[in-house]
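Format notes (please read before filing issues)

Several people have asked whether sequences and structure tokens are stored in separate files. They are not. Every record keeps both together, in the order shown below: the sequence lines, then the token lines. Line labels are part of the format and must not be stripped during preprocessing.
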Amino acid sequence: MPGRTPGASRATTVFAYGAAAGLAVDLIVGDPRRGHPVAAFGRAAAAVERRLWRDHRGRGALHTAVCAGGAAAAGALAARTTRGSRAASATLTAAAVWAVVGGTTLGREARAIGGALAAGDLEVARERMPHLVGRDPQALDGPAMARAVVESVAENTSDAVVGALVWGAVAGVPGLLGFRAVNTLDAMVGHRSPRYRRYGWASARLDDLAGWPGARLTAALATVAGGDPRGAARAWRADASRHPSPNAGPVEAAFAGALGVRLGGTLSYGGRVEHRPVLNGGGRPVEVADIDRAVRLSRRVTWLTLAACVGGRILTDTLKRRTK
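Then the structure lines:
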């Protein structure tokens, strides 16, 4: 490994090289079709749920603690075994980053749906929609699918990439694995169905808390990197709080303003219709071409996040030295 970055501690150097390598691997190969570590975690979490489930918040909190705490503890143990070597530590960080981020697969799935929509093949687009969003594809026409894809790209940029890198910068490999575990648990049990209204409460609230810094950083970087910084800032300020999710709101509003499009409105989940507020109401309706624009914006936000996280760590190292 190259020498230490000027002004950076050993841990910061390890994170910088490891995270950059992990993002590069994700860019080149994406997620594996079989044997993905997150899928393995999901199976383990489902097994724990089968043992613990009761219609009770306390049981759900225990489920969250066992699964998320176990993932973070595994990361801490792995990091401890490699701490004697910077190269081994950076390699472990790279592997963890590759395992928890999903930016390349997110872009591929979004563009696949966009390609089907551009070709006028709505049935193929509907078949691929469940790979990316949880909405009922049969209830969506072409424009509604394009809008759903853009919203998903925005939200998952925060959930699948930025949030993980932020917690990796804060807490290393345990932060990376712990954040991804919390995010996965929220997707599994955090929704307000009769089964999970109480049991999934802890996972949903912890995900809101863990995702808070990443969502704000995503919105800020989308504002800077998008085509209309003023429009993005205006939409973020005016509309983010109107969204039912405290973290999806800032991200989707900033993306809407940056792309100059209108997001939100009526959607359907499993036959349940929701009427969400419109974000960036002055924007135009989403078009198929906006899917590719959203993916490119997501990529820019990803690499800016890496720069921001490394820069934040270097600044923290510098301030620590000066206060000694």
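For reference, the curators noted about this record: The CA atoms of residues 232 and 254 lie 5 Å apart. The radius of gyration is 20 Å.
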